[in-house]
Amino acid sequence: MIGGVGLVTLDSEEVLITEGLSIFISVGVKHRIFHPGSEPAVFIEVQTGDYFGEDDIERFEYDFGRIWAWPSSSQSTV
To answer: What does the domain layout of the chain look like in residue ranges?
Structure first.
C-alpha cells in the first residue's frame, strides 16, 4: 500500500493494510479490496507465475457501481 488504507477480504478474513504494508494472495483465494478511508488509496498489484492473462478472472460480486465490460473471446484485443 503506497498511500491511504485498504480493507482486503481474503475468502472470509478481513485484513486492514496501511501505507508501507503488503499482502500476498494465494492462487484460488477469493479477494477484494475496499477503501474505508477519506484520503485516496494507492496500491500496486503485482502478479507472479507463468500466466498473466485476465481471461481466468471469475467475478463473484460486483457492487462498485461502475460499468464493466469484458471483451468477448471472439473480439480482438490489441
So the answer is: 1-73
**Which SS3 state, helix, strand or coil, does residue 4 take?**
coil
Helix and strand numbers (H, E) in the chain are: 0, 3
Q: Are strands 13-18 and 31-34 parallel, antiparallel or unpaired?
A: unpaired
DSSP 37: S
Instruction: Fill in the amino acid letter for 52.
Output: F
Q: HSE-up of 38 (CA within 13 Å, CB side)?
A: 0
Render pLDDT for 52-74 as a digit per residue (tens, 0 to 9): 888 877 777 766 665 555 555 54
